[in-house]
Amino acid sequence: MFTVQIVDGQWKDAVFACDGQESLLDAARKQGIKISFGCRGGGCGMCKVKVQAGRFERGVSSKAVLPDEERVLNYTLACKTYPRSNLCVSMEAGDT
Amino acid sequence: MMGIMRIGRAQLRVMDLDTAVDYYTNVIGLDVVGQEAGKVYLKAWDEWDHHSLILQQADSPGLDHFAFKVEKEDDLSEFEKKVEQFGCTLKRISKGARLGEGEAIRFELPTGHQVELYSEIEQLGTKVGVLNPHPWPDGLRGIAPHRLDHVLLTGEDVKTVTRFFTEALGLYQSEQVLSVDGEDMVGSFMYAANGKPHDVAFIKGPDKKLHHAAFYVEHWYDVLKAADILSKHDVTVEITPTRHAMTRGQTVYFFDPSGNRNEAFASGYITYPDFPTITWTEDKIMHGIFYHRRMLIEESYMKALT
Ligand code: FES
Ligand SMILES: [Fe+2]
């Protein structure tokens, strides 16, 4: 089980658990942390966040809403993000 | 000239073809009718033509193009003139460019979407056939809609795209949404003279985007049943079954595995070219879309586009 900490915005300092099987989005919402979302399929971009620290795996994500330039900066779609270590996540950076 | 009969197909971009095919066959319940590199062709059980949906492997979701079927091959050259007169650039797609299809013309809408018109397409028929048919065949899977019904797209200039469809392509407008001062058109529903309340619709938003692709089911109960099937398959349901005042249809909205929004749409009124266009004012738009809640139920409904 990994720990995910939100570093800014409405949910600043909130901490939740994610086992790495479940997406960051699903784990957060189950624990009452409302990351906005739409499709839950990596297509609409509504759940975009930025990982400030930690490792994760990324499922298939649209290049239109998450281009390569953003991927290298660790922007990611919460619905397609699977932690591989504890994470620090910025929600505000995702509101591009 | 005979003109456009209906929306005949949509080509959707998907990010994982196998996952998409599994969803569109087992959850939506279409049948695979053919494939080629990076593309799978499907049809609904009640459609006669070779295909109505093409899934295309791509690195982002969305609508590659959609197409209307015209009654006569000669109509294509007539439409070619009208489309060019309107100022849209156009090209011919040669016969056999896609499975089962004849020649087509392709052009870009004022909203940036790609549209084709075609007449010739192979007919595969349906399992119930044309002779003393049963009302439906055995072995249906999933939601099992009758047909691809309509697409709803977003664009900056809804007024001009409406003028293009009504003046150059001969479609009719069933309903429109106007800004409260009456100056701007922010929603538009259009149909070929086939009785349907819409074959294509637009709401004001970014150009080139897909809001949803809709499949037709018969009754209100089928919408409820569709929602049951979606939950059973853990599909993301955005808007649970409700009523549109616009078109009077019943609806459930959900997302395919790549994030393209789908709708199972039932009933809706029958309309004819001599009927007046219904007008909604923008302040009542949510009464029109979600008649019971009369408000934006989910922020994603206006924001999640592909
Ligand atoms: S919710 Fe649509 S990309 Fe994550
Ligand atoms: Fe619709």
TrEMBL record, chain A:
Transmembrane segments: none annotated. Keywords: 2Fe-2S, Electron transport, Iron, Iron-sulfur, Metal-binding, Transport. Its cofactor is [2Fe-2S] cluster. InterPro entries: 2Fe-2S_ferredoxin-like_sf (IPR036010), 2Fe-2S_ferredoxin-type (IPR001041), 2Fe2S_fd_BS (IPR006058), Beta-grasp_dom_sf (IPR012675). GO terms for molecular function: 2 iron, 2 sulfur cluster binding; metal ion binding. It holds the Pfam family Fer2. It comes from the Bacteria. Belongs to the 2Fe2S plant-type ferredoxin family. This is 2Fe-2S iron-sulfur cluster binding domain-containing protein. It comes from Alicyclobacillus acidoterrestris (strain ATCC 49025 / DSM 3922 / CIP 106132 / NCIMB 13137 / GD3B).
